[in-house]
Amino acid sequence: MKIKLILITFIFTFLSTTLSWANNTFAIEQPITSIVVKKADRKMYLFNGEKVLRRYRIGLGFSPKGDKKFEGDGKTPEGKYYINRKNPNSQYYLSLGISYPNETDKIEAAKLGKSPGGDIFIHGRDKSPKWWKRDWTFGCIALRNHEMDEIYSAVDIGTPIFILP
After folding, report:
1. Mean model confidence pLDDT for the chain
2. How far, in Å, CA of 25 to CA of 42, rounded?
3. Residue 160, class by beta-carbon neighbours within 10 Å (0-12 exposed, 13-18 middle, 19+ buried)?
4. Predicted local distance difference test score (pLDDT) of residue 39
5. Nearest to 40, CA basis, from 135, 132, 104
6. Is the peptide bond before 101 cis (omega within 30 degrees of 0)?
7. How far apart, in whole angstroms, are the C-alpha atoms of residue 127 and residue 93?
8. Which is deepest, 24, 28, 59, 66, by most CB within 10 Å?
9. Residue 27, pLDDT score
């Protein structure tokens, strides 16, 4: 009985890993119409209409719970934004800029007497390894570099991104 359980666990783990790898090995051929980030699940999804084309495990800001309120709080913003720029020379491999802060973000930060910050990106990893930390950015969304290659080439400027709690 114990051997069957171990064997089933091994097969499940193998299949999960293989399917996850297969999910991200083929080029994205359909246009990306939106990006959805579920912070609590540490997942990011690329959509074409209502169809999920890809899903990724992500890292967030070093204080991930809650909405970003001001520069330096370590939180990843929540709400609807847009991809507004691409940076092929990013310190963090490649990066896609997110249109944070919007007017509401600026007003909320001003009420606290602080700057909302800026420069929130979807990006790869820098040269120093961060594998021991799940959430290590200053508010950005981090992926593995090979995933960033795929996303960078598939996502257009102007694509909406919905960042959910």
Report:
1. 86
2. 20
3. middle
4. 97
5. 135
6. yes
7. 8
8. 59
9. 79
Residue 126 scores a pLDDT above 90: no
Q: Residue 10 belongs to what H/E stretch? A: helix 2-23
Q: Residue 140 corresponds to which tokens in the numbers above?
A: 């950005």
The Cα 139–Cα 60 span in angstroms is 6
Q: Mind listing the domains of the chain with CATH numbers? A: 31-164 (2.40.440.10)
- CB-CB contact of 59 with 142 (8 Å): yes
**Residues 91-107: tens digit of each pLDDT:** 889 999 999 999 999 99
Which tokens in the block code for residue 153?
């080439």
Amino acid at site 27: A
Task: Report which DSSP code applies to 39.
Answer: G
Token pair 């499940």 is found at 12
Residue 105, amino acid? D
- Would you say the C-alpha torsion 152, 157, 160, 165 has a positive or negative sign? positive
Range with the lowest mean pLDDT among 11-15, 63-67, 95-99?
11-15
